[in-house]
Amino acid sequence: MKRTTSAALPDRERQIRSLFDQYIEMYAARDDALTERFSDNFSGYAGSGDFLVKDRQAWVRITRQDFAQVPARIRIEMLDIALQDISADVVVVTAFFHIHLPMPEHVLSKETARLVLIFRLEEVDWKIVHSGISIPYHLAQEGEIYPLKSLRERNSALEALVDARTQALHASEARYRLLTEDALDVIWKTDRHLRLIYISPADERLRGYKAQEMLGRSVFELFSDEGAATVKALMRQAQATEQAGKLTGFLSFEVQHRCKDGRLLWGEVRSKPERDAQGTITGYHGITREITERKQLEDQVRQLAFYDPLTQLPNRRLLSDRLAQALVASKRSGCHGALMFLDLDNFKSLNDAWGHAVGDSLLIEVARRLKSCVREVDTVARLGGDEFVVMLAELSPGQAQALEMSRSMAEKIRLSLSEPYALATPQEGRSDGVVAHRCSASIGVVVFLGNEASQDEVLKWADAAMYQAKDAGRNAVRFYDVEN
Questions:
Q1: 3-class DSSP state of 412
Q2: pTM
Q3: Number of domains in the chain
């Protein structure tokens, strides 16, 4: 992965990169002002711990403990950094670096640390809502952030071990093995045909395969079928670059790996080709780090950013993105689409009579019925409250037929939503009470073609048609006349 300079980044990414650089500088300088960057809703993993800290003040104490243990400035040797937009107000920054402590022992500085920071825009300021630093050592004793005492002991033991092995083995082979066999990350090497010729013991701890089972096998056997396809596509791109006369360097990617017991886990892979004196690729070597927890966290962040937490339907942000795509696709294909605004009639009276728990049960059931009415290519979204949107894609090139298709779908939805509801509600002395309820919906529909209207216009027209349905007595469908 190329390291991107600040000057080459768009404005928002440049802002996040600047905030990240400030974070690293304050951390290296042991500056207590760093704690002001943490969000009130902070969570994080400490470098020498495997538990999730969910309290901001607890993380502030950990940070200050870190600064107290090593008060002198440390040096951060940055190796690589990547920014990933999750949403308009969430950005993930992943960085790889070496940590050089102000001490003569250098064991820790040989390990590659990984830091994941999640920035979220809170009102007008970007705050850090999650920090996860991974250092391939779990030797810290109570009261330590960095495992200094253990590192000194381990360093002495390693030096003695090097001396002993050097007498029996070639010096370079002894040093290679010392650096890889105790590492938590998987270190591997292949020949030019991508057959494994070395894989470190960490792979057995991670995936369950002994080294002897993997040597001589294709590197693609490490991955799931989908993962192997991803890696092959990346290899083809790299080969095309080489054929164009440009040498490739480090390649970084995230891919699912297959375990011996059938599990799948996510690994972050950094690979680099090995070359002879003429520049011909003779093999590859690299390092793989498990990132399953990080991927799960990213999925959770994405779910919060793009989906309604009650109904699990797309929210307004995701609907806007899909509508924009539908307009582009409609312009390209010449097929009409349709957008429906739905507002439940007399929803407030149900909430007032039975409470929000019953109202939520109704909204969940409405979402289920809406999804059962539409096709795979269509989108059902919740805007908030009792307002829903249904977007129909790829209807017909002919306007009259598109109108008829959308009219049929709207009527199907209206009838489905008007069927009786049996909503569970807790009652005094019992937990299985049921509220029988009838509901209707006012539905506004607009049929669009990609080159005839903007996204805002389509939304505005569907909303206007919905109010026409309400004015007509509710439990009705009304179409917006674009031509008039």
A1: helix
A2: 0.48
A3: 3
